[in-house]
TrEMBL record:
Protein name, as recorded: Pentatricopeptide repeat-containing protein
Pfam families per the UniProt record, alphabetical: PPR, PPR_2, PPR_3
Stretches forming PPR repeats: 167-203, 204-238
UniProt cross-references to PANTHER family, sorted A to Z: MITOCHONDRIAL GROUP I INTRON SPLICING FACTOR CCM1-RELATED, PENTATRICOPEPTIDE REPEAT-CONTAINING PROTEIN PET309, MITOCHONDRIAL
Gene3D superfamilies assigned to the protein according to its UniProt record, in alphabetical order: Tetratricopeptide repeat domain
Keyword Repeat assigned: yes
A molecular function GO annotation: mRNA binding
Length: 281
């Protein structure tokens, strides 16, 4: 029953089932908490998407959408904090890396970066976290997503000092965060790209999406087009948002020749997805 609520991101239903389990005297196992943490992470994502769509369609003003989103996230955070406390202190369960990463993602989804970092540091310092690269990538991603770049960069420094290898996801998260810093975004992103390649890591579709986004936001359609051409040569399929950013930049800058070239590079399905993204912008 709990699994069904978790798959549907039904936090209230899942919380009720969890309460029944505890009251019945049955001891929850680690899989119970894995399901609960994943449920919060999924619900946080759904809340963000739903309120954003309501605002775009005019059903809610952006301020009302943000207030609604924050209220739901605060409710989820309260439950999440108590569940973590139960797992660690009340039932003293031996948690695994999978459950801890689910807990970090859940805290990230409700905007609690400090808790994400706390969980990471507690596990690393206690020597319980065997695969640290993925956990650091989650923490860095959370800090970058919530525009706490000082924390993200500090975590990256800690990775380097501990000898933890960075992943493509790590670099992508840093680039996504830095692209919002208008004054230094190009310089810092290119520095990270060179560092990433020096580590023997190859850019993926997310990496290129960030590079194209930065070029387009700077009005450099030619640079954005060159990044997409490089993707095509490396047989990396651009995500619809990459095409949408490039098309929008061409239209805004009245680059008709570049627009014709971009549209010619897309297949029918890519063009359909790109148009659906443009409709939401």
């Amino acid at each position: 029953m709990l699994g069904a609520h978790a798959r549907q991101a039904n936090v209230e239903g899942g919380s009720a089932v969890y309460g029944s389990i505890c009251r019945s005297g049955v001891r929850p196992d680690i899989f119970t908490y894995l399901a609960m943490f994943n449920m919060i992470a999924s619900h946080g994502k759904e809340v963000s998407q739903a309120t954003g769509q309501q605002a775009r369609q005019g059903a809610l003003g952006w301020q009302d959408a943000n207030r609604s989103r924050i209220k739901l996230w605060q409710s989820d955070y309260s439950k999440l904090w108590h569940w973590e406390k139960d797992m660690r202190q009340r039932f003293k369960l031996q948690h695994d890396t999978l459950t801890l990463k689910a807990l970090m993602r859940a805290y990230s989804r409700v905007g609690k970066v400090d808790d994400v970092v706390r969980v990471l540091h507690e596990e690393v310092n206690a020597g319980r976290l065997k695969v640290q690269a993925d956990a650091y990538a989650i923490a860095i991603g959370a800090a970058a997503r919530w525009q706490k770049m000082d924390a993200a960069l500090k975590l990256h420094e800690q990775m380097v000092k501990r000898g933890v290898p960075a992943t493509v996801q790590t670099y992508n998260s840093l680039m996504v965060g830095l692209k919002h810093k208008s004054a230094t975004k190009h310089t810092n992103t290119m520095r990270l790209l060179r560092q990433m390649q020096a580590d023997g890591l190859r850019p993926d579709a997310v990496t290129y999406h960030v590079l194209v986004s930065i070029a387009c936001s700077s009005g450099d359609v030619g640079d954005g087009l060159r990044w997409v051409e490089e993707m095509m040569r490396r047989r990396i399929r651009p995500v619809p948002e990459t095409w949408a950013n490039l098309v929008a930049a061409c239209v805004d800058g009245r680059h008709s020749l570049e627009l014709e070239k971009v549209v010619g590079m897309m297949d029918e399905r890519q063009e359909e997805l790109m148009r659906s993204v443009l409709d939401e912008l």
